[in-house]
Amino acid sequence: MIDAERLKKNWSLVASHGDQVPLYFYSTLFLTHPETRDLFPMNMAAQRDKLVTALGAVVSNVDTIDAVVPTLQALGRDHRKFGALRGHYPAVGEALVATLEHFSGPHWTPAIAADWTAAYGLVAATMADAADAAAHYTPPWWDAEVVAHERIDLETAVITIDPGNRIDYLPGQSLTLCTNLRPRVWRHYTPANAPRADGTVELHVRAVDGGEVSTALVSLVRPGDTLRVGPAVGNGLTLRPGRGPVAMIAGGTGIAPMKALVEQIAAAPRHTTLYWGARSPAGLYCIEPMRALAAAYDWLDLVPCVDEDLFGEIRSGSPAELAVAHGRCAGADVYLCGPPGMVESSRKHLVGSGIRAEAIHFEPSGE
Ligand SMILES: Cc1cc2nc3c(=O)[nH]c(=O)nc-3n(C[C@H](O)[C@H](O)[C@H](O)COP(=O)(O)OP(=O)(O)OC[C@H]3O[C@@H](n4cnc5c(N)ncnc54)[C@H](O)[C@@H]3O)c2cc1C
Ligand code: HEM
């Protein structure tokens, strides 16, 4: 029997070595199995590594694997877009065990080695089986043509892609995208529309400083270009069933999933208040279409807000603070989306104001 407690302890010891851990892992993997190098991005910034962190955390939690089987299956299916095949899993497992051994020093024992190998085998089999099964009915990714690219300002673009009516997603879910301008680098972006009959998807992209993918999407991508699109992910922001009121709190491009959710709610209206915040009025980059939606739906109230408006025409304050102050969150399902710092501070404010944590819905940023 695998001693999961011992694995968790061992992982926290190893993880305390920080960026050295992914560095050692990838050096080992690429040296011993050079064929895996082509699956990974050119630039492997250790501080952003998700694979090694996930390997340690997921594999050492093998005692609760039953609870995460659906997540592991989705992860395995999603890994097809990286080109990860069943044959690659042993290489990653060997590099993981070699890395753990290296950083465990005198704490490494044959029993721990055997437990890690067995636990990795279980996780890897769950992912690889799901990936093999998915190969019978869905491609690893879809090619989507950019059919419109509206550059709103230096930082922001609204991009419409046409994946040809093939991508299933729910409003609030995200898609991962990859442009051949940044090969093998995938990032999440959230559709700003509920699924349409013609299959087109509107994306709102904000270029972050020094951002590899977002700057390319905003400044370099043009109509006619092709983007790769991975399967829809995340259920944090999908609409919870019910007839009660909804409060939406968005910052910047966090308006995208809210717009998609509003389109979904229109089919079975519930009272909805949408607080949308930005630093300045210019940051409310699609305010006119949002005002048009609010004018068309009597169940939708839109409250734009900014940190500061020199002309005093738009309310000042953070969207979360205003939503709480106006009493729109108590008893409502609250949906929250925006830059990672804003989501965290809004969530704290809501909980601190007595809103039940279970009523606050958001997608972990993964940053
Ligand atoms: C579920 C989910 C949904 C998302 N939906 C959208 C969306 O609809 N529109 C959108 O524009 N973005 C969205 N993002 C963020 C997006 O996936 C990328 O993280 C972002 O575009 C930066 O990628 P990059 O390659 O340009 O930057 P990177 O090269 O990865 O990072 C460059 C620098 O910017 C920092 N950074 C990374 N992301 C952010 C961020 N969001 N805010 C501030 N600093 C950051 C990094 O820490 C790093 O220092 C979403 C993220 C998640 C997890
Ligand atoms: C138990 C096995 C594995 C687990 C738990 C795991 C987990 C993860 C996770 C959580 C991510 C981040 C995903 C994201 O950001 O969307 C990731 C990325 C990735 N994984 Fe895996 N993975 C496993 C096995 C493998 C294997 C066998 C390969 C193939 C060599 C592989 C290749 C990749 C690649 C190429 C990335 C993207 C890396 C990047 O962009 O920096 N993984 N993995």
Q: Give the class from helix and strand content and strand pairing.
A: alpha/beta
**Level-1 CATH class name of the largest domain:** Mainly Alpha
CATH topology assignment of the largest domain: Globin-like
Bound molecules: flavin-adenine dinucleotide, protoporphyrin IX containing FE
CATH architecture of the largest domain: Orthogonal Bundle
Describe the structure.
The protein is α/β, with parallel strands linked by helices. It has three domains: 4-134, Globins (Globin-like); 142-229, Elongation Factor Tu (Ef-tu), domain 3; 246-361, Rossmann fold (3-Layer(aba) Sandwich), CATH 3.40.50. Helix content is 38%, strand content 17%. It has eleven helices and twelve strands. It has helices at 4-15, 20-32, 51-60, 65-78, 89-104, 110-134, 212-219, 255-265, 287-296, 319-325, 340-352, and strands at residues 142-151, 156-162, 175-179, 187-189, 201-206, 226-229, 246-251, 272-278, 300-306, 315-316, 333-337, 360-361. The strands form two sheets. A six-stranded antiparallel beta sheet has the order 4-3-6-1-2-5, with helices on one face. The chain has a six-stranded parallel beta sheet with strand order 10-9-8-7-11-12, sandwiched between helices. Strand 8, helix 9 (287-296) and strand 9 (300-306) form a beta-alpha-beta unit. Helix 3 (51-60) packs across helix 6 and helix 10 (319-325) packs parallel to helix 11. The longest helix has 25 residues, at 110-134. The relative contact order is 0.10. Bound molecules: flavin-adenine dinucleotide and protoporphyrin IX containing FE. Protoporphyrin IX containing FE is lined by residues 36, 39-41, 50-51, 54-55, 58, 75, 79, 82, 84, 88-89, 92, 123-124, 127. The site of protoporphyrin IX containing FE has 19 residues, from helix 3, helix 5 and helix 6.
